[in-house]
Amino acid sequence: MANQKFIYAATTCVILLLGRWLFQAIQWRRKYKLPPQVPGIPIFGNTFQIPASQQGPWAKGLAEKYGEITWVFLNSSRVVIDLMERRAAIYSSRPPFPMTQGIMSRDSRIVLMPYNDQWRSVRKIMHQILSARSLDVFMPFQDLESKNLCWDYLESPDRWWSANGRYANSVIMSVVFGRRSSLDDPHVVELFETLELFLENQQPGVNLVDAFLVLDKLPKFLQWWRPRGNAIYEKTAHVYRREVDLLEEKIKNGTEKRCFGTDFLLTDEVKKMTEVQKLFVFGTLMEAGSDTSRVTIGQIIAGAVTSPDWVARARAELDVVCGHNAERLPTFEDRPKLKYISAVVKEGFRWRPNIAEIGAPTMLIKDDEYEGYKFPAGTVFTWNAWAIALSEREYEQPERFWPERFLNGEEESALKGHWGFGPGRRVCVGWKVGEMNVWIAIARLLYCFDFNEVPGKPIDTMTIPQITKNSAPFQVTVTPRSEKHAALVRRDCEAAVKTQY
Ligand code: HEM
């Protein structure tokens, strides 16, 4: 009898719960209207459909099939501008990432922070160091380090990829920590390793808990991903802390060189931060400042090898300004006369968006309506970088590396005409520094070196891997344009290599 009562009560409960769920689902469907959804599997939805790498081509296919907006992906500049830029106040937050932000970054990585006061205060600090006003601080280092880059290309051509990494890293290390990095610097290698660990784990589907937030509610001892996340955090914090300790040691001994770090460590802002927050400000600058430029320079080299026609036009411009016989290296002062180089750099950012192939996800913080759709707060959006960059509706001959498309009087507006740095309020805070890193490096490399395919190793520019464990993502032969160009590099760049601080 008691058993029967229990079964009756349990069945009633289940029916009531199901009824409530059904009622809520109907209400939800009445209230919201979402764009066409990509069919997924029950419970897991599309989680396992997103490839771990080469997401760009995959998402481009979806954009062609599903139109201007799909669930999550914004597939045209028009909708990106309408939502991410014009309605930035509600489209600039991030969804929670319990593994990559919570455990691996102790909630301190700016790029994954929700749109809140913590984000605002870290962004302000980053802005102070990376904004247009600080460019005079960066320029001498970019000049020196790009001379070192040319030297490395001449002396160790097969290490061109490591040379790109050293170059970009050394610019930011000089400004932030007052020290240079060398080609074989084990600290640089380790920094790139931690960055790749972060990028790997940030790929959709790699950490189930980042897609199914309910898993985060499991008791900590049942969270099987937690020990791995903690180990990655420890490694990352160690790499960051090593540099900060070194700087603090120099300050204590009075041997420091004045830099952003020495000033920052004395500010009130830093006193309000926890130790971990402080480490992640320094660490993010090192990581974000290094990888992005090395990748973009590599990408433009791939463009030079696979469609050499534009290289001839870039050289013609460089030769007029710097001499047909390797008279001198291009400099920042030449910029007004080197519009084509600025267009090459913009085309490099557009051509194969590689830092964020499918954009970076942002979370809507308030219900919103757009062109007949009704989105609930919490909807995740991303600008579909590859799909937009390679869409014929956006660009003529989109797959061609064709700098001429940017010879439109806006060569110096580095953000205009592409989404390489992202849209709206989460736009890359280091865009100007990054653009200048790439500009001076590319101007000098194109003036001094030829880039050719390695026989039997063609470059497939649609599938250049993003995460390469510190090895070059494709092969290329690097040779000086002529003996005179080699002599110019020897003459003008040796002093840069010998400079120490
Ligand atoms: C050279 C080229 C660079 C490219 C292509 C690039 C690209 C990007 C992209 C696509 C984003 C995400 C934007 C979004 O979420 O909508 C981003 C964010 C960011 N970048 Fe860059 N970046 C570059 C250079 C740099 C440099 C030199 C630094 C600093 C030294 C830097 C620091 C950051 C930071 C801190 C964020 C996070 C901003 C936030 O969430 O508010 N970037 N970058």
From TrEMBL:
Keyword Transit peptide: no
Cofactors demanded by this protein: heme
Pfam family name, one: p450
UniProt key word Transmembrane helix: yes
Binding site for heme: 428
GO molecular function annotation: heme binding; iron ion binding; monooxygenase activity; oxidoreductase activity, acting on paired donors, with incorporation or reduction of molecular oxygen
Signal peptide coordinates: none
Family matches, as CDD domains: CYP64-like
Chain ranges passing through the membrane: 6-23
Coiled-coil residue windows: 230-257
Origin: domain of life: Eukaryota
Gene3D superfamilies given in the database record: Cytochrome P450
Keywords associated with the record: Coiled coil, Heme, Iron, Membrane, Metal-binding, Monooxygenase, Oxidoreductase, Transmembrane, Transmembrane helix
Family: Belongs to the cytochrome P450 family.
Protein name per the record: Cytochrome P450
